[in-house]
Write a structure and sequence with these properties.
- This protein has 767 residues and is mostly helical.
- It contains 32 helices and two strands.
- A two-stranded antiparallel sheet has the order 1-2.
- Helix 6 crosses helix 20 (423-431) and helix 21 (437-459) runs antiparallel to helix 23 (492-514).
- It is elongated and about 175 Å long.
């Protein structure tokens, strides 16, 4: 009795310490002193929420039952962090740009902000995570039972109190207190994250402490420990390649799709550069968590009686050796593993339930409730708090119905397989622009139904009638849950994962190929697939000042007056309207929608803004029509610009031709001036000698011949000058082509004297 009382006191003290840590972290963040909270190491430690009670307790039990196969649970996430960090970076960038609040918000926003798809993902996540929460409650209950077994006086006390119920209530109160302080689900929960980081250190130290004790305190050192391992069945290397590949893939898929992992990996991320540290630090953390699993399992099998629960070897081995202090530390490690998972999962699921189920119903019931009299802020917070209670209640109910007798690893794998159904829609939406909402919906429904039928229901003793399990529904053998389509002899888990994910992916791809995405889906697809080249919200709206007032009233009911007033003042200043309400421009409304999406999710925020804008909003079809018209106008403008450029070139060519013609005209005038002078010379000679021949009497024959020759020569000269004048090339070149010939200078001079000699002839006509 004393041991159990001490354990309860230690547990309460530890919980109080977590409260103090969370409170101090929240206070430091509010006062602006929380830079250390944004450290990449805190971010990396928060990822340790992957290591739940399953990996703390269940990994040892898994190793005791299946040998080294437990390594696959650590191998999958390590491969994702090391080899697929670029995809994680893309998810983080999408989350920050689109203000994604959950995995349901991511998928619904990608596929046209579909409310129906968001509800589908939320329901699948709640059903899929319920067995996992049950696992955590079961592990804590078993831990208390292990201590009670060592104290006979405590056995009756454990039977009279429902430990799982009290643990669920305590976790619900802690999560409500620190998980719903901020309405904006996109903001970091600094208190919760810091508490998870502390728990990460505690559970790692506790598991290493137990491992060190087992190796050096019980086995006597590394050498003897290796001999024990070699002598045990665990040391026999038996590897089923297909199962190893299947489990590794399943754990990697769950690492991406589990709501709690998406919460810490994407939503709580402050800086995507933190992924660089986490890419190697988190796999190192997982390696340390798995370092002593095999030694603890081997020693537990040697020391504990036959039939003992191997899931509790981390506790029972120290207890059997009288190490109660070490056992309490181990208990705190397992308690940390369970509580951190439940807290983060409850926060993530409550955000999904309130944003995608409660708020849409509220808006429908209030008929335009975005601007109604109700205080939406209180509705959202109350919805999240009630959702946290509902999630934990479902986990407790599953624990009671299942009886809590299933191995922890088996329960965890069932949950992994359920949440893995989100993988095709998630990854397809991020990397494939052709993915459609109908395809995602069809794949999710088919995968969820097959997972429920083949894996979830058979886990319950009376989940399915025995006749259905053995003969199939209505006696159809090929529809047996664990031998679907006649395939027998396959492990039930791998069988369910293979068929559910295969048909899920096939339906997703085929329906996406035959269906056509809506305009908003195409716009969102471009935003998500090309997130590193694009940013902002593609939705466009328009309206007037009246809508601005309604938007401000609606936003105040959700985000609070101070935050909204500061936001509207900033937007008004951005538009140059300081002191007034901002114009509801497309950019302003897009930013307002992103702010609201952090509190109520992308789909709900879109619906609320649409309600306020009413008929003044621009539909996406109209937006694309305008875009097409704008493209046509741009094409027409481009053609006009080309024609203008062509006209400019023609005008330039005309100016050049005109300049050339002007130059030719000047040259022509100069040429004609020069040629007129040249024409007078032969004309004068011809006139003079022709007058002599006409008027003279008694000319000697030789004089007559000489004068006639001069007239003939000057006529030829005149003809040549006229031919040159009529030659267009002379006008173009501005000069006469010279007729070069060899001759004697004396002949030229004689000819010139003879041509001009008529002026001195005595018989020249008197003037």
């Amino acid at each position: 009795m004393a041991t159990l009382n001490i354990l309860i006191a230690v547990c309460l003290t530890y919980v109080a310490l977590l409260f103090v840590v969370a409170f101090m972290a929240e206070r430091a963040a509010l006062q602006g002193r929380g830079n250390w909270l944004r450290s990449p190491w805190i971010y990396t430690l928060s990822l340790s929420v992957y290591c739940t009670a399953w990996t703390f307790y269940g990994a040892v039990g898994y190793a005791a039952r299946s040998g080294l196969e437990f390594v696959t649970i650590y191998l999958g996430p390590s491969l994702v962090m090391v080899g697929w960090w670029w995809a994680l970076r893309k998810m983080v960038r999408i989350g920050r740009t689109q203000r994604i609040t959950s995995v349901a918000d991511l998928i619904s926003s990608r596929y046209g902000k579909s409310g129906l798809l968001a509800v589908c993902v939320t329901l699948l996540a709640v059903v899929g995570i319920t067995p996992y929460i049950s696992l955590q409650l079961q592990s804590v209950t078993l831990s208390f039972s292990s201590f009670a077994t060592s104290d006979p006086d405590s056995v009756g006390l454990m039977e009279s109190y429902d430990t799982a119920l009290w643990v669920a209530i305590g976790l619900a109160l802690f999560t409500i207190l620190f998980g719903t302080r901020n309405l904006d689900a996109n903001e970091r929960h600094h208190g919760v994250v810091m508490a998870i980081a502390v728990e990460a250190v505690v559970k790692l130290c506790a598991l290493i402490a137990v491992g060190v004790f087992v190796v050096w305190g019980v086995a006597g050192g590394i050498g003897p420990m290796m001999e024990r391992i070699d002598a045990s069945e665990i040391g026999t290397w038996q590897m089923d390649g297909g199962r190893w590949v299947g489990l590794t893939f399943l754990s990697a898929a769950a690492f991406l799709t589990l709501p709690r992992m998406f919460q810490v990996l994407v939503v709580e991320n402050e800086d995507e550069r933190h992924l660089r540290t986490a890419a190697w630090a988190f796999p190192t953390y997982l390696m340390l968590m798995s370092l002593f699993v095999v030694p603890i399992a081997v020693v537990g099998l040697d020391l504990m009686p036959a039939g003992s629960n191997p899931d509790q070897f981390v506790l029972t081995v120290p207890l059997t050796q009288g190490q109660e202090g070490l056992a309490m530390l181990s208990f705190l490690g397992g308690f940390s593993s369970a509580t951190s998972m439940v807290i983060v999962a409850a926060i993530a699921l409550s955000t999904m339930v309130s944003n995608h189920i409660v708020m849409p119903i509220f808006l429908r019931l209030t008929q335009g409730g975005a601007g109604g009299p109700s205080d939406v802020r209180h509705v959202v917070i109350m919805a999240r708090r009630l959702s946290i209670g509902l999630v934990l209640a479902l986990g407790y109910l599953y624990y009671k119905i299942s009886g809590g007798g299933t191995a922890l690893a088996a329960i965890g794998l069932v949950s992994f397989a359920g949440l893995a159904q989100l993988l095709p829609a998630m990854m397809g939406g991020i990397f494939w622009r052709g993915a459609t909402r109908n395809g995602a919906f069809a794949g999710l429904v088919v995968g969820f139904v097959l997972w429920t039928y083949c894996l979830l229901l058979p886990q319950f003793g009376n989940g399915l009638p025995l006749s259905v399990l053995e003969q199939g529904p209505w006696g159809i053998g090929w529809l047996r849950p664990q031998a679907l389509f006649g395939i027998e002899g396959v492990d039930p888990l791998l069988h369910a994962v293979m068929w559910s994910l295969s048909l899920n992916t096939a339906c997703f791809v085929l329906v996406s190929l035959v269906s056509f995405p809506s305009p908003l889906e195409r716009l969102q697809g471009a935003q998500f697939v090309n997130i590193f080249e694009r940013s902002g919200n593609p939705q466009s709206w328009k309206g007037g000042i009246a809508q601005s007032e309604d938007l401000m009233i609606m936003a105040q009911r959700i985000l609070g007056p101070a935050e909204v007033q500061a936001f509207f003042q900033s937007e008004a200043s951005r538009q140059g309207l300081a002191g007034f309400l901002p114009e509801p421009s497309p950019d302003f409304l897009a930013r307002l929608e992103r702010e609201l999406s952090g509190a109520v999710g992308g789909a709900t925020a879109h619906a609320m803004v649409a309600q306020i804008m009413g008929a003044a909003s621009v539909s996406v079809e109209d937006l694309l029509a305008v875009a097409d018209e704008t493209a046509q106008m741009m094409e027409y403008s481009s053609q006009l610009e080309a024609k203008s450029n062509e006209l400019t070139r023609t005008a330039r060519q005309l100016r050049a031709a005109n300049d050339k013609l002007t130059q030719l005209s000047v040259q022509k005038d100069a040429f004609l001036s020069q040629i007129s002078h040249e024409l007078r010379t032969p004309m004068t000679s011809i006139r003079a000698f022709s007058e002599i021949l006409r008027d003279a009497e008694g000319l000697k024959p030789e004089d007559l011949t000489r004068y006639a020759s001069i007239i003939h020569a000057e006529a030829i000269r005149l003809t040549r000058l006229l031919d040159d004048l009529l030659d267009l090339s002379v006008l173009e070149n501005g000069q006469v082509s010279l007729n070069l010939r060899d001759g004697r200078l004396s002949d030229v001079i004689s000819h010139a004297i003879a041509a001009a000699g008529s002026d001195m002839h005595p018989l020249r006509v008197r003037r």
